[in-house]
Write a sequence for this structure.
């Protein structure tokens, strides 16, 4: 399917690896110019090189090594490219733990990274999108927004705040000006974060990493973890001309793990 976005320009956050990279990959394969952001210069440069090799239609891949959760980091990104047709927000989730141990500083870090940063990126780009008559914003959040996980309270709270904000702004006048804002909710995907979680569980329980992962897969109807490429394909569709009638939605990709009807 031709997504109809060749030649557009996208900002993809957290794109040196994992789900962010999967999204950038799907976009450059469809001819979208991407600006990828992450904090690690070396990993980001390697990702940009791989993206350039996969690009079609003369699409480009530029890398900005910065912390997008800071004001100076966002300024660095907009110094490279002021206007974007597509923005994919993505930041690593805050650490798990017991809510009794989280102080105000821990909460503010979580809210700043997983709620306020996406809002700042939306605020900085949607008016230009509306003036041009096309815009796509996809926020990578978490399946925990629909099915909260007790030890991920920081993530549950911050991402739910973003979800509530998007529910309102996506249905504003932006919707009639060709700008859509949606959230993409990953379940268990084969990423470094998932593997590190398995390593931590293995250390606590004495089980092997493989045993931990196999037990997790059994809780998923698809009986496997998702891949970054298939996640990226969903993201690219939400960015396409074919998804212009979808806005304010929470798109869950979890292999059927969420047991609810709605």
């Amino acid at each position: 399917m031709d997504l109809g976005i060749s030649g557009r320009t996208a900002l993809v956050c957290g794109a040196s690896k994992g789900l962010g990279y999967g999204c950038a990959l799907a976009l450059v394969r469809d001819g979208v110019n991407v600006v990828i952001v992450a904090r690690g210069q070396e990993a980001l440069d390697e990702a940009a090189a791989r993206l350039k090799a996969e690009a079609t239609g003369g699409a480009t891949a530029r890398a900005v090594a910065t912390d997008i959760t800071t004001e100076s980091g966002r300024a660095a990104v907009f110094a490279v490219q002021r206007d974007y047709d597509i923005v994919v927000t993505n930041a690593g989730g805050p650490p798990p733990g017991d809510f009794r141990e989280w102080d105000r500083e821990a909460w503010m870090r979580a809210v700043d990274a997983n709620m306020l940063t996406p809002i700042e990126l939306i605020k900085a780009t949607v008016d230009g999108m509306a003036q041009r008559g096309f815009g796509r914003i996809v926020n990578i959040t978490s399946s925990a927004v629909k099915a909260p996980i007790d030890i991920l309270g920081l993530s549950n709270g911050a991402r739910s705040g973003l979800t509530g904000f998007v529910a309102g702004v996506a249905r504003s006048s932006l919707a009639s000006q060709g700008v859509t804002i949606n959230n993409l909710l990953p379940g268990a995907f084969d990423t470094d974060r998932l593997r590190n979680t398995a390593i931590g569980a293995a250390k606590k329980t004495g089980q092997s990493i493989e045993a931990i992962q196999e037990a997790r897969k059994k809780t998923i109807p698809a009986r496997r973890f998702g891949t970054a490429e298939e996640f990226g394909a969903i993201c690219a569709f939400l960015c396409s001309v074919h998804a212009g009638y979808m806005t304010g939605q929470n798109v869950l990709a979890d292999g059927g793990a969420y047991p609810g009807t709605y």
